[in-house]
Write a structure and sequence with these properties.
single chain, 163 residues, alpha+beta, 3 helices, 44% strand, globular
Length: 163
């Protein structure tokens, strides 16, 4: 009985100590969250410029891109076979109502972005395409300490009419 009581006291103390340690552990720094958001912003800016040049540095080589219900492969494949040709058909691509939340759990970070985007096609710039979008991404800090996108999934739909 004494052994059980000692074990119970020890478990309580250890449990309490681990709770205290978690409470005292520093939260992910705002600098890390800002660094992750910066990677997302750089990608967003490239899309708005209609130019994927240099964007592969934002992604890990073994990245995975998912768009709506499609598996697009790694970023380099996606950029070459999907994104860049698509951007070539646009005269403008703009984001608005952008919000991003980031949770850092190093060496990973988890991001959710919501936004509205507007596309103008070269062949019909007078009729914009407006969509409400969401993206979820997992980023990983590389050996050099830089954040890169490991996977990203985007989806969009026509905005619902405002009531």
């Amino acid at each position: 009985m004494k052994t059980f009581a000692a074990f119970a006291v020890l478990a309580t103390v250890l449990g309490l100590n681990s709770t205290i340690a978690r409470a005292q552990a520093p939260a992910a720094s705002s600098a890390e969250e800002a660094a992750v958001k910066n990677v997302l912003r750089q990608y967003q800016e490239a899309v708005e410029k209609l130019d994927t040049t240099g964007t592969s540095r934002l992604f890990l080589a073994n990245s995975q891109v998912f768009e709506s219900s499609g598996v697009e492969g790694n970023y380099n494949h996606y950029a070459a076979h999907h994104l860049a040709p698509e951007l070539g058909e646009f005269s403008a691509f703009t984001f608005s109502d952008y919000k991003a939340t980031v949770q850092v759990d190093s060496p990973y970070a988890f991001a959710t972005e919501t936004y509205t985007y507007t596309i103008k096609l070269k062949k019909d710039a007078k009729t914009p395409i407006v969509r409400r979008g969401v993206a979820t991404s997992v980023l990983r800090k590389n050996a050099a300490g830089q954040w890169q996108i490991l996977s990203t999934h985007t989806s969009a739909r026509t905005p619902r009419p405002k009531k």
